[in-house]
Amino acid sequence: MTDSYVPMFATWLFGGAMLPGLLVALVIAYLFGSIPFGLFLTRAAGLGDIRQIGSGNIGATNVLRTGNRWIAAATLLLDAAKAAVAILVVRTLLYSPDLPVGGDRALPLYLAALGAFLGHCFPVWLGFKGGKGVAVMIGSLLTLSWPVGLIFCAVWLLIAFTRKLSSLAALTAAATAPIFAYVVVDEWLAATAALLAILLFYQHRENIARLIAGTEPKIGAEKKAS
């Protein structure tokens, strides 16, 4: 990488030092990712504290347990959007705003995706207890490489409709994303997708245990039970 890819604000603050610039980009993305839209929307809609419902996380899947599909959909879109905005903000702060994805030159963008994911899953404002990262991974991949992002969504939808298991759909899409990222772009994006997938698997560790035990609830099961 060259100094031409260091964020302009980092050059001004740190005299062009690469590492501080990348760290600032990571922090900015973390702050965007830590915005708890699920919590804000459910409270605004008079649905109470989403952290006291279902799994207790702030993501769209848990918001859906309130029974309000529109709020859940809005949470999904906004969580994906905050990841996209984080990456685009970092891109605009570079000397080369049209920086393409691919190779080590795009490292600031990959760090932005990671920062947004960490912010969503471990928001400092909520005691580091956030969502599971599916929407954020979608937003990141769509922004970094829209074909890879669309494939992620297609895999999720295929598993969700055939197996009726939201967690299995997310895990399958995340597990296959690095493969498609490598084929479509290169090993750098594949490594980024793999890191996000590992974090997503960690956030779904309880779901994985239930899937193995055969006790994971299917999509719509809770609504039918109620």
UniProtKB/TrEMBL annotation:
**Where does this chain mainly localize?**
membrane
* Enzyme Commission identifier(s): 2.3.1.275
Q: Where in the cell is it found?
A: Cell membrane
Q: Could you tell me which Pfam families the record lists for this protein? A: G3P_acyltransf
One of the entry's Gene Ontology molecular-function terms is: acyltransferase activity
Q: In which pathway does it act?
A: Lipid metabolism; phospholipid metabolism
Membrane topology designation: Multi-pass membrane protein
Q: Which residues cross the membrane?
A: 12-33, 70-95, 107-128, 135-159, 179-202
Top enzyme class: transferase
So what does this thing catalyse?
A: an acyl phosphate + sn-glycerol 3-phosphate = a 1-acyl-sn-glycero-3-phosphate + phosphate
Give the record's keywords alphabetically.
Answer: Acyltransferase, Cell membrane, Lipid biosynthesis, Lipid metabolism, Membrane, Phospholipid biosynthesis, Phospholipid metabolism, Transferase, Transmembrane, Transmembrane helix
Task performed by this protein: Catalyzes the transfer of an acyl group from acyl-phosphate (acyl-PO(4)) to glycerol-3-phosphate (G3P) to form lysophosphatidic acid (LPA). This enzyme utilizes acyl-phosphate as fatty acyl donor, but not acyl-CoA or acyl-ACP.
Would you identify the family this protein belongs to, as annotated?
Belongs to the PlsY family.
Subunit relationships: Probably interacts with PlsX.
- Protein name per its UniProtKB record: Glycerol-3-phosphate acyltransferase
